[in-house]
Amino acid sequence: MKLGRLNHIGVATPSIAKSIAHYRDTMGATVITEPFDLPEQGVKVCFVDTPTASGMNGTQIELIEPYNESSPINGFLAKNPAGGQHHLCFEVEDIDAARAHFEGLGKRILGPTRIGAHGTPIFFLHPKDMMGQLTEIMETPKVDGGH
């Protein structure tokens, strides 16, 4: 199994609108996708892109806000009321092979493989098995159409 590129950094926020303004006004970020709901994951999502000095696309940041009171993000925000880094997301070519690889290493996978915000299969690895960092593994999108 070969790990691909870092796709995005997930940032939990109590307000996507305020976070968009922050990244735009302080870092020159542009909105890639308008906020949209992922009720099956309990979150509202928006992707922003941070520019590079050369003007090329930079790093995508996934802003995640709770969708409702049962959102899994609520626990994170209870401990970090201002929000903060929630997860890293890496691409893989074959999600099933990656899952088998990590399971073979004894890594704990949180829940079933499901469709993520990019419309491709994802799963999460337990932070205790990943040096304290919640890690999302995502099948590489077939077409990079923005999000």
TrEMBL record:
InterPro entries (alphabetical): Glyas_Bleomycin-R_OHBP_Dase, MeMalonyl-CoA_epimerase, MMCE/EMCE_epimerase, VOC_core
Enzyme Commission number(s) of this protein: 5.1.99.1
GO molecular function: metal ion binding; methylmalonyl-CoA epimerase activity
Presence of the UniProt keyword Cytoplasm in the record: no
Pfam families: Glyoxalase_4
Gene3D superfamilies: 2,3-Dihydroxybiphenyl 1,2-Dioxygenase, domain 1 (3.10.180.10)
Gene Ontology terms describing biological process: L-methylmalonyl-CoA metabolic process
Organism domain of life: Bacteria
Keywords: Isomerase, Metal-binding
PROSITE patterns cross-referenced by the UniProt entry: VOC
Residue ranges annotated for the VOC domain, each copy included: 5-140
Similarity field: Belongs to the methylmalonyl-CoA epimerase family.
Protein name (Swiss-Prot/TrEMBL): Methylmalonyl-CoA epimerase
Organism for this UniProt entry: Alteripontixanthobacter maritimus
